[in-house]
Amino acid sequence: MDSEGLAALLSAQGQGLLATVASAGHSPAAELGLNNRLRQRYPASMVAAALELTELRTRARTKFDRADHLYLTREGLEQASAQIISAHRARRYTPYRYVADLCCGIGGDLIALAPGRDALAVDRDPLHLRMAGLNAAVYGASAVRTRCEDVRASDLTGVEAVFVDPARRHGGKRDLRESEPPLAWCLALAERIPAVGVKAAPGLPHESVPPDWELEFVSVGGDLKEAALWSPPLVTVERRATLLPDGHTLVSEPGPAVECLLPGAYLLDPDPAVTRAGLVEELARALGAWKLDPEIAFLSLDSPVTTPFARLLRIEESLPWNLKRLREVLRRFDVGAVDIRKRGSAVDVEDLRRRLKLTGNRRVTVALTRVSGQPWALVCSDP
Ligand SMILES: C[S@@+](CC[C@H](N)C(=O)[O-])C[C@H]1O[C@@H](n2cnc3c(N)ncnc32)[C@H](O)[C@@H]1O
Predict the structure, then answer these.
(1) Is the CB of 109 within 6 Å of ligand 1?
(2) Is the minimum distance from the CB of 81 to ligand 1 under 6 angstroms?
(3) 244 in Cβ contact with 275 (< 8 Å)
(4) 123 lines ligand 1 (CB under 6 A)
(5) Which of 137, 146, 231, 310 is a Cys-bridge partner for 268, taking CB atoms 3.0 to 4.6 Å apart?
């Protein structure tokens, strides 16, 4: 969709067309007939824009609870923060009355930042900027100023806090090394406006974070989604892992080094936000668990625990890595299917699956890892 297409959809005729398309339901088979019928009443370009937007709104339901009212482009939706994450982040801005969302895209963050306060939204893409303003209004924002410009030229007079989500895609690929505008520029914003939050890719190296900033990793339903950097006025701890949707959060806390011992009765496989935030030792201390190897994120303990921060597995067999022995154990346990979890193992998973030639009835998890530097296998089941 281009700016003209959006303007057409915003007209009374366009709104009627969108309502007709939405009520017709959306299936590729039905689309052709619908397309032909609509083209008798509306311009072809408007019909194409309405069908595309309706498809994007359906897709956007996984990210936004008011998806059916939003204005989206394919790229804008793909880059947009999911509402569950933007709402979580927006809580840090509670004390501020005038907030800027720099690089606002279609407004995935703006919808959470703007309601209830003055907001400035900036993007150099005029179509996305227009959509961001409309989408923020869908979420009840009534005081959003939009500016189509390079954020580096933005006048931030009066702004009390900033959020910036720089572009990270180049040539269709995610580029972890550099963003636009670059991370260094985003961090330097804090010299002008002290309260700054920067969204970053989850692969962000810890060394790129200034010492007095907080680094937060967020996972949703066990999938690592993104990182955020927080400048000193927004800092709560040094590092944080946040697990959504429930909002469980684990923070960095200095403490004694965690011991490395042989596997006990249970294995803990930490959430990826915990491992990326470097909080495995904090988790071990909180649960009374130990490590299997200084470099590996698996933990072990002898009694079962309930924790949102790791998956708990019962260890049925623990053995130094040896294909023949592993095969014997799995046959003895009547195993026909394995989920393989690898941390610090060089074993080729697909090759292993072929070589195991399993024929039994049970399904187990095989953790391939290292125990004090030695390749190891743990045959595990859900407790
Ligand atoms: C990752 S997207 C932002 C997504 C947004 N936070 C959301 O949740 O919908 C990055 C945006 O940065 C904009 N952008 C990149 N460099 C820019 C610059 N120098 N000035 C203004 N906008 C820029 C792009 O146009 C793009 O819309």
Answers:
(1) yes
(2) yes
(3) no
(4) yes
(5) 310
Contact between 298 and 268 under an 8 Å Cβ cutoff? The reply is yes
Instruction: Please state, rounded to an integer, the average pLDDT across all residues of the chain.
Output: 94
Residue 1 Cα distances to 11, 135, 156, 201, 208, angstroms = 15, 16, 30, 27, 37
Residue nearest to atom 27 of ligand 1 (CA): 105
Residue ranges per structural domain of the chain: 3-60, 77-249, 266-381
pLDDT at 29 over 70: no
Residue nearest to atom 12 of ligand 1 (CA): 103
Residue among 124, 129, 169, 179 whose CB has most ligand 1 atoms within 8 A, to mutate = 124
Rg, Å, the chain Cα set: 25
> For 155-184, how does the pLDDT look when each residue is reduced to its tens digit (9 = 90+)?
999 999 999 999 986 544 444 558 999 999
The residue nearest atom 18 of ligand 1, judged by CA position, is 150
What CATH number should be reported for the domain whose range is 77-249? Answer: 3.40.50.150
- Separation between Cα atoms, residue 72 and residue 78, nearest integer Å: 10
Q: What is the pLDDT of residue 26?
A: 62
- Specify the ligand 1 atom closest to the Cα of 101: 6
What is the distance between the terminal CA atoms of the chain, rounded to a whole angstrom?
Answer: 51
The DSSP line for 266-327 is: EEEEE-HHHHHTT-HHHHHHHHT-EESSTT---EEESS----TTEEEEEEEEEEES-HHHHH
**CA–centroid distance, residue 129 to ligand 1 (Å):** 9
d(CA 34, CA 45): 14
Give the C-alpha separation, 236 to 239, whole Å: 9
Q: Are 256 and 230 in contact, with CB atoms under 8 Å apart?
A: no
How far is ligand 1, taken at its centre, from the CA of residue 72, in Å? Answer: 14
What pTM was estimated for this model as a whole? 0.91
